[in-house]
Amino acid sequence: MRALPREVIVLDSEALSLAVRGDRSMAMRLDFARDNDVEVVASPMTLIEAFDTHSVEQRWDWALSRVEVPALDKDQAREARRLLAAAGLHGHRYAVDAVVAVVARRQVGQVTVFTSDTDDLERLLPPHIAVRKV
To answer: How far, in Å, are 7, 18, 44 from residue 40 at the CA level?
Structure first.
C-alpha cells in the first residue's frame, strides 16, 4: 500500500495573527492539522511580524504549540534574496514574504501557504505549492 504524501501548512504573519486572535476558521484549521498529522510551519520572521502587544500570552502559547519553527541561516537568507531578485522584487516590504517562500519551498509533500498576500507569494513560489488567502 502506498503512503499518502505528507501534508504541510505554512503560515504567514496574518494567518498566525488570526490564530493568536482566536479566529474560528484558523483555529479549526490548526485543530484539524493536529488531529490529522498535518505539519504546520511558520518562519521565525513570521513570529516576529505577527507579534501584537494586545495579544494574550495564553493565545500565543496555544498557537505556537501547534506550529513548527525551522531555524534559518545564511543559506536560507541567500535563497530568499535570490527569490526576490528572480521575481524583480526588493526591499523590506517583500523580505518576510521571501523568507516564508523559502520555508515553504523546503517542505516535502503537499504544501499549502495561508497568507493575506497571495500576489507576492504566488510570484515567489512554484506552481506546485498552493497559496490560499486568509
So the answer is: 9, 14, 13
